[in-house]
Amino acid sequence: MLEIKNLHARIAEDGTEIIRGLNLTVKAGEVAAIMGPNGSGKSTLSYILSGREDYEVTEGDILYNGESILELDASERAAKGIFLAFQYPVEIPGVATMQFLKVAMNEQRKYRGEEELTTPEFMRRVKEAAAELKISPEMLKRPLNVGFSGGEKKRAEILQMALLQPQLCVLDETDSGLDIDALKIVADGVNALRSPDRAVIVITHYQRLLEYIVPDSVHVLYKGQVIKSGDKSLALDLEANGYADIIGAAA
Amino acid sequence: MNIQTAITMTASETALVDAYTAQLGELPGDGAVLSARDALLNALKTEGLPTRRIESWHYSDLRALLRSVPAFDTAAFAEGVEPLAAGSSVVRVLNGKADVSGAPEGIHIRRYGESLVEGVAAADLVERGTDDAIGRINGTFVRDGFEIEIPAETVLEQPLELQLVQSAGQSHSRFPVTFGAKSKAVVIERHLSVNDAPSLVSVVSDLIIDEGAEITWIILQQQGSADSHFGQVNFDLGADAKLRIFVINAGGKLVRQEVHGVTTGEGADFQMRGINLLGDESHTDVTFTLGHDVPHTTSTEIIRNVVLNRAKGVFQGQIRVAPDAQKTDARMACNTLLLSDDADFSAKPELEIFADDVQCGHGATVIDLNPMHLYYLMARGIPEAKARTMLVNAFVDEIVEELEDEAIIEPLEAIIAAWLEKHA
Fold first, then answer.
1. Which residues of A touch B368 (CB under 8 A)?
2. Are B387 and A79 a contacting pair at CB < 8 A?
3. B286 vs chain A: nearest CA distance in angstroms?
4. Over its length of 251 residues, how does chain A's per-residue pLDDT go in tens digits?
5. What is the ipTM of this complex?
6. pTM metric for this prediction
7. Domain holding A238: CATH number?
8. Quick one: which H or E segment has residue B43?
């Protein structure tokens, strides 16, 4: 589903290279965890996948379902099924949450040549998904993410993911700032989306989230490269021994 | 005629003077009104239209900006439209001719043309000061409008819409309105154009708001892309009275909307909200002055501007606090979303405070859309153009929401969305 080949990318503004020859393949149905110390390029990778304009790809390619997505903007990538759950969801005063959800769902449908949702159908879907994630109707009445607690923001991200039904889900440190109950709710939301034709990339610092979202593969990112890949035991190994040995071995 | 002109007149100034001569037989009024008109025209003639050397016109050099003045077009036809808010009472001024049919029960209303003919209007036809170009133009040419009195304790359940539709030529109207003690009303002063033919419209509204009245006055200006629009609201706000003025500019080529007021009774509260949607090569100026003349009065002004293309915008806000007006609380903010490199906005706040126990503040911001907001919306599949429109809408809808009446909010938001769709 996703094939990243020798990717090099830098910050557009100052030219700082963050991703330096990254290779990664994620198959349909797979849950891949990406771990790594601070500053290794994990969040940058998620931004580049979703099409944030502050980064430039200078070399290599990203293939999604066999096609390069480098020329697509963020909205086109999203409409093709790539979803990024933000580490820091953005507060947008003045934009009503419900209006935002409806526009996002219908714009994606339009892009794919599908009929727009009727209002009752839209309401039904939001109600169902919100109930699963314990999101109150009051929260949905507020402007987008405004005044949401850290945990509420993360749940709102998973709600959007559930409603948009993406093919490739990228979760950027979705566990940060969550207490254990919220973590379970979020993990349940993600697990509910696991399916043979959907792939999930979980970016995290900690093994803890991976107890709830069990990965098929684990990749260690360091200085903009994947320096080691393995199965879920690699995450346990990292939890126990830290990154030093792996970084030392790769150097 | 042997009047010494101190200046070489521009084409527009000449056109105004010639229009007066041509219209003389048509303009209503007795001898007193006629001499008031003559005096105002004379001032225009000798001083000309204001230039940037006149401080209150510094950012809107009217002499340079008013390139042409359309002739009066008495044959032009204009038709009324449905009210903005369903259920409103509507009285119309079509191409400058007023008609009181449609007025609600319980208020006193008559055509301003009658006040001119009787001569009682002569006292209105004076300039605010030597920089009062709008007062001069309007007073010289005013033909009609409405004189309205809302009796004390009267509550208008539905908005009253003053609908001005202009198809071509000029129209100059006046609305002296007295709101009696403890009356409540929402008035919508709505300016429309039905075509692209250039027109020049001036309106002066003189509002007297008696003790304890609660009034909302909404000015919705949607004139054509070749039109000049000069509006002026003067108000006198009595004790414990509340006045909210909403100014929404979404049209016109050259626009100046002035709001001038004084608080004359303790406990008075004034609120102004402005939305300026500026596109193409238009020039739009909102100029506001408020005198807190007595103690214990409050005011807040929030202006939001969206500036596109090569449009230019101006906001001037002056708050004066008189020496004994202690406990005044006045706040003013002007926020501008500048969406093009060629767009231009000037904000000039002025505070003149002569009392020592007051709270006054002002702030101005100029920003572009937040790139993080844009990215977030796009990352959910919303195309860039749509995402931009949503964010711009959010910036101004916050102000509209303050009206708290869905019957007015919905059509206003639709007008704003349609404007953005067309221009952004």
1. none
2. no
3. 24
4. 999 999 999 999 999 999 999 999 999 999 999 999 888 999 999 999 999 999 999 999 999 999 999 999 999 999 999 999 999 999 998 899 999 999 999 999 999 999 999 999 999 999 999 998 889 999 999 999 999 988 899 999 999 999 999 999 999 998 888 888 888 888 998 999 999 999 999 999 888 889 999 999 999 999 999 999 999 999 988 888 888 888 888 76
5. 0.96
6. 0.87
7. 3.40.50.300
8. helix B31-47
Contact A123/B at CB under 8 A: no
Strand locations in B223-338, DSSP E? 228-237, 242-249, 254-263, 269-278, 283-292, 298-307, 312-321, 329-338
Q: Look up residue B312 and give its two tokens.
A: 């230019």
Q: Provide, as residue numbers in chain B, all residues whose Cβ is less than 8 Å from the Cβ of A164.
A: 380-381
> How many Å apart are CA B306 and CA B304, to the nearest integer?
7
Q: Are strands B89-94 and B160-166 parallel, antiparallel or unpaired?
A: parallel
State whether B386 and A107 contact (CB < 8 Å): yes
- At residue A250, φ and ψ (nearest 5 deg) are -75, -25
**Domain residue spans in chain B?**
87-368, 370-424
A100–B contact, CB cutoff 8 A = yes
- What whole-number distance in Å separates Cα of residue B207 and Cα of residue A126? 49
Amino acid (one-letter) located at B132: D
* Residues, chain A: 251
Contacts of A84 in chain B (CB under 8 A): 379
**For chain A, what is the domain count?**
1
Phi then psi for residue A90, to 5 deg, are -90, 135
Range of the domain at A142: 2-250
Contact list, A75 vs chain B (CB under 8 Å): 378-384, 387
Q: List residues of B whose CB lies inside 8 A of any A CB.
A: 371-373, 375-384, 386-387, 390-391, 393-395, 397-398
From the candidates A90, A99, A109, which should be mutated to test the interface with B, based on the most B CB atoms within 10 A?
A90
Query: Cα–Cα–Cα angle for B330, A91, B272, nearest 5°?
Result: 25
How far apart (Å, rounded) are the C-alpha atoms in residues B33 and B126? 10
CB contact under 8 A, B395 and A94: yes
Q: B256 vs chain A: nearest CA distance in angstroms?
A: 28
Residue with tokens 């042409």: B68
pLDDT, one tens digit per residue, over B394-412 is 999 989 999 999 999 999 9
